[in-house]
Description:
Blueprint: E1 2-7, E2 12-19, E3 23-31, H1 43-65, E4 74-80, H2 84-101, E5 105-109, H3 110-117, E6 129-134, E7 139-146, E8 149-155, H4 161-171, H5 178-186, H6 211-222, H7 236-264, E9 270-273, H8 280-289, E10 295-296, H9 307-321
Parallel strand pairs: 1-4, 4-5, 6-9, 9-10
Antiparallel strand pairs: 1-2, 2-3, 6-7, 7-8
Helix pairs in contact: 1-2, 3-9, 4-5, 4-6, 4-7, 5-7, 6-7, 7-8
Amino acid sequence: MLVLGIETxxxxxxxxxxxxxxxxxxxxxxxxxxxxxxxxxxxxxAGRSHVEALPVVIRESLKVAGVSLQxxxxxxxxAGPGLIGSLLIGVNAAKALALSLEKPFIGVNHVEAHLYAAxxxxxLPIFPSLGVVISGxxxxxxxxxxxxxxxxxxxxVDDAVGEAxxxxxxxxxxxxxxxxxxxxxxxxxxxxxxxxxxxxxxESPYDFSFSGLKTNVFYxxxxxNGVKTGPCPLTDPEKADVAASFQETALKDVVRKASSAxxxxxxKAVYIGGGVSHNRRLGTLFTEEVKDVPVFFPGExxxxxxxxxxxxxxxxxxxxxxxxxxxxxEPETRAGNRDFIKIK
Length: 344
């Protein structure tokens, strides 16, 4: 089955063609650079950019895959969570294609697709396993019983880890998106320079809290009663130490809680998804901490928002349901749940 996957949940316009949920024939991504000057995603601009880019990206993806629209068997689209304007562009485009081609259409959860991205490998997925979602909008742990069956173990009570990276980057006057900038700057700093502490949630050992850590970074930069009214006062070496210390504290918190959950629930593998999974230091920390079971990261081009994970997951959702979705399906910004969808 050839599946065309469309992803427009935020600021990437992405389309891919995937065969039988695994074989990626194309995976074309067009990022929107317009948001850099705003220090974050400007929703209206994101939607307008999708309108302009999506037809071009669809044609390019088909060309790279060496197929035509008539060869496609299923249209899969990210139906949430995300920005409503951006979601509407992708969902309505998918509906139009399905209607005109007389092919089935399926809406999938964007966050679930991030987890599936780590399963798009030659090896068959291993269950039961631990899913670790770490992105700008989500940070949580789930027990994966099978594709489509999840049980929440822990989640963030405030900021997502990627959101914390962006906010700390802004404190240090680094450009948006902040995650890659913090990672790059951290290479020049000492991760033990500042004794930051990760947040703890009483009686919830697998929950996360990054708001306090972000506040500690602010105090380190601007002082206990400081206010950010101008440029960051630190020297470049001092900024590097802050970036390295913050990154080490935040990532170690994720890795330690994930490792603890894997052992407590006797899970056979760990699958990691979301934009922060691209961080190389995170990979090193997981290698050092989790040694008894395999840890799987998304392959190249699959960490950030992409159409391949939407097409791949769409194949399984359609196969399990035995039919496509109605064209009445509407996108949901939160997809029915703060962190995820269809979690038991």
